[in-house]
Amino acid sequence: MNKSLIVVDCQYDFIDGSLACINAENAVKNIIDFINENPKLNVYYSCDWHSENNKSFKRHGGIWPDHCVQNKRGSEIHKDFYSKIKKKKNRPNPNNIFYKGQDDEVEEYSAFEAKNAKGQVLKDVVNQKILVCGIASEYCCRETALEFHKAGKDVEFLSDKVAYVNKDDHEKNLADLKNSITVL
């Protein structure tokens, strides 16, 4: 059975920028190794993709520092996904990058409704069996996994291929997720 791998928000602001997460560089390396070891996966990338006026930013009343502002370095997917993934179709490209968080009024953690450059929605293109990894475990990865599970997909959460904001919250998240999905 073909599987879809959803690589959640492996963008510079979550790796070394305004919202740098614990274990981010290691997660990127582990994800790339996994993709190279499993070349038949259908790989999809989600990206937080905000305007300067996003309401999630502290300066606009939200809880987060400015992050993943469209077309700035912080919004870019880590360069190693472009250079170290062996199979070209598994590297980020216009067809497999799905953007979320584009509505300034809505906090969008999950990649479920994210759209690519063609306007395709991630929920409509993935396989029945989904693997979730990326950044951050207790926010965007969690919500993505749970929303796909709620939609009837068979979801596995790759716990050694995630970064997180807070270690205790990450551990609580993994324990909680085990109640509804497979955590590897």
Q: Which band does the percent of strand residues land in? A: 15-25%
Helical coverage, percent range: 25-40%
The H-and-E topology, N to C, reads as EHHEHEHEHEHE
Radius of gyration of CA atoms, rounded to a whole number: 15 Å
User: What's the arrangement of strands in the largest beta sheet?
Assistant: 3-2-1-4-5-6
Q: Count the beta strands.
A: 6
Major sheet characteristics: 6 strands, parallel
Low-confidence stretches: none
Content-based structural category: alpha/beta
Q: Please give the alpha-carbon distance between the first and last residues.
A: 18 Å
Mean pLDDT: 96
The rough form would be described as globular
Enumerate how many helices there are, as a single number.
Answer: 6
Report a brief summary of the structure.
The protein has 184 residues and is α/β, with parallel strands linked by helices.
What does this structure look like?
With 184 residues, the protein is an alpha/beta fold. Helix content is 28%, strand content 20%. It has a six-stranded parallel sheet. Helix 5 links the parallel strand 4 and strand 5 (154-163). Helix 5 runs parallel beside helix 6 (167-177). The protein is globular and about 45 Å long. The mean pLDDT is 96.
Topology of this structure?
Blueprint: E1 3-8, H1 12-15, H2 24-37, E2 42-48, H3 80-83, E3 97-100, H4 122-125, E4 129-135, H5 137-150, E5 154-163, H6 167-177, E6 182-183
Helix pairs in contact: 5-6
